[in-house]
Amino acid sequence: MIETENKGKAFVAYEYKEITVNESKVSMYMDCYENFGWTFEEERSDLGNTHRVTLRMKRDRKIINKMELTRLQRNFEACAIDLGRLERAKTSLATMWALAIGIVGTAFMAGSTFAVTHEPPIIWLCILLAVPGFAGWIAPYFLYRRLVEKQTEKILPLIEEKTEEIYQVCEKGHSLL
After folding, report:
1. What 3-state class would DSSP assign to 1?
2. Which of 12, 102, 125, 132 is paired with 171 by a 20 to 30 Å CA distance?
3. Residues 6+ apart with CB under 8 A from 25
4. How many CB atoms lie within 10 A of CB 158?
5. What's the pLDDT tens digit per position in 125-152?
6. What is the pTM assigned to this prediction?
7. d(CA 142, CA 123)
8. Longest Cα separation, the chain
9. Is the bond leading into 120 cis (omega within 30 degrees of zero)?
10. Could you give the CA distance from residue 97 to residue 125 in angstroms, rounded to a whole number?
11. Distance separating alpha carbons of residues 126 and 172, to the nearest angstrom
12. pLDDT tens, position by position, 96-109
């Protein structure tokens, strides 16, 4: 006669969820999802992208207040997406300007190269075009740093506000468990 080890344990049906997040945000996601009833099964790095991690989790399908927890979880997910957009916004404008100035500098350098390879070479035009060309290659570094500083000053209060909203949603979810 075979005895089962599960005698006395009730059957629990689980729902499963898998998310892929940036490596730097793993702790935040793990902490937040626990407030909506999820428990983590495993964490593994994506093979193709070393900065992304896949989190696998489960929770009881018959959890109390499931509808409200799901609504709060969706609110958290929307806030997390907004937070990611705000983080990217710190550098996107600076990147655009730095690339544009770098391309203009490259165009001046191309003109300088054409001027020097012309028959006969036009040295004065080569020098005239090379100066803004070099400036267009050097300036983007400093411009990028300055614009990122300015954008960070502008966006940091919004990031803090969104982070506080995430914590309030998680607090509400935790109180329902």
Report:
1. coil
2. 12
3. 80
4. 13
5. 999 999 999 999 999 999 999 999 999 9
6. 0.76
7. 29
8. 102
9. yes
10. 27
11. 67
12. 999 999 999 999 99
